[in-house]
Amino acid sequence: MSLGFAIGAQGRRRRRSLPPSAAALPQRAAIVARWSADDIPPQADNSNLASWADGAGGLAAVQNTPANQPKYRTGGAGGKPYVLFSGAQYLDAGTANAVASACQGASSSALVVCRNVQASSFGFLFTASNSTGYNLFANGTQAGFYGNGLGRCPYGGAGLTTLGYTAGLPDATSARYYINNTCVTHFGKFVSAAGHNVGIGGSPATPGTAAKAEIYEVIVWNRALTAAEMMQAEKWARDKYASPYPWAGAPFRVFHGDSITNGYSITAPLNSYPGRVAAANGWSLGRWTNLGHVGVSMTAMKAEATAEIDPMLVLLGASPMHLAAWEWYNQRLLSTAAATAATQSYLQARRAAGAAKLVLLTSTDAADALDVPLSRSAYNAFFDANGPALCDAYVPLHLNAAIGTEGACPNAAPYGPNFHTDGIHLTDAGYAVLAGVVAPVMAAL
């Protein structure tokens, strides 16, 4: 049997029609600050803005030096006003307030809505840290979360852009960052330090970080938003500012799994297998999302999907969801019956929720001391026999000679070009192999 994919019986089913929900900001009670340009008292177009008060708690971000004051502008996206930062302007909201407390806490979320980002050195749009740390940025060539190297994703979009960060999900020690509703990856949680300034348009402590962009909204919550809630916020922003949804007219692709899906050990944020699949198929940010994370089992993925993935189906409306999911390593110590039942249950639940297309992957190899080869073989054999009937495309990774067959990963270090030094995860080269298998499968759905 050659390594490819099988179109399953489920592929012939029609997706049930799901109505779109009203676009509204999620978790309003948890919003501690919302700087919205259309809450600024009307003033002359292109006039200096010395103070911008948030509409939730009244926290003012101020600038007393005229040369460093941004401009209040009218006639922006959707006919709305905006605040223009031109590379030397920033607003300071201080160091001891509800926003600082939220960004220093166990969980928080931040969202920036901006447009026409221009080239700058750093491009800090919202910051709760004085330098590298809790910073959402866009500098004309990169965008994301500046506090982590994997947060600096290539992005040069000049249209309406949303940047998001959630600290405290998918688990208490981790965080996600979003560009246009795509969760690019998750990593260890960053919180801001006490005494650091909250700033808009640049860090008050390091003015050289200032951005060049139109800023429409800066919103901070004192809890971590789920992936579905971030999609709801995306819809709200796109509706308010008359911008099409990034996924409009196409399927929205969700990648769900463990640390291999997330891209553990990648050296660049889009080197994960979801990022590479998206690149190979020409899917821009906003048309896919990576919800893989460290340590999750298929049983835990099912509970997570109920809270984070299934609600997206209503938000997507007429746009179908294509979901690629798999997990082997964190359930390797279960019996074959329990492990296969967990995977079947996950797929059946997503089908019942309304996912249009399901893609099931099997497993990659690992060093035998870290793997359970006989259990993996039995798990793979079960899905060779039953997988195609459970999904729309079945991908038997275990047959790939580079990363899947028994012995693809040597049993002692060095583990070769495709496997990380831990003998479990993949390298950039290994993730490229994985993406090369999956990309044509998902393109053909």
Molecular structure report:
A hairpin with a 7-residue loop joins strand 9 and strand 10. The protein contains 9 helices and 22 strands. It is an alpha+beta fold and 445 residues long. The strands form 4 sheets. Strands 1, 2, 5, 6, 8, 13, 14, 15 and 17 form a 9-stranded antiparallel β-sheet that branches. Strands 7-16-9-10-11-12 form a 6-stranded antiparallel β-sheet, with no helix packed on it. A 5-stranded parallel β-sheet has the order 19-18-20-21-22, sandwiched between helices.
Q: Give the class from helix and strand content and strand pairing.
A: alpha+beta
Total E-strand runs:
22
Q: How much of the sequence is in beta strands?
A: 15-25%
Termini separation = 21 Å
Specify the biggest β-sheet: 9 strands, antiparallel
Q: What portion of residues is helical?
A: 10-25%
Low-confidence stretches: 1-5, 9-22
Overall form: elongated
User: If helices are DSSP runs of H or I spanning 4 or more residues, what is the number of helices?
Assistant: 9
Mean pLDDT: 94
Radius of gyration: 23 Å
Secondary structure topology:
Elements: E1 31-36, E2 47-48, E3 51-53, E4 60-62, E5 71-73, E6 82-86, E7 91-94, H1 98-104, E8 108-115, E9 124-127, E10 135-138, E11 142-145, E12 152-154, E13 161-167, E14 174-179, E15 182-188, E16 198-200, E17 212-221, H2 227-240, E18 252-257, H3 259-262, H4 273-281, E19 288-292, H5 298-308, H6 310-316, E20 321-326, H7 336-353, E21 357-361, H8 373-390, E22 393-395, H9 428-443
Parallel strand pairs: 18-19, 18-20, 20-21, 21-22
Antiparallel strand pairs: 1-17, 2-5, 3-4, 5-6, 6-17, 7-16, 8-13, 8-17, 9-10, 9-16, 10-11, 11-12, 13-14, 14-15
Helix pairs in contact: 2-6, 4-9, 5-7, 7-8
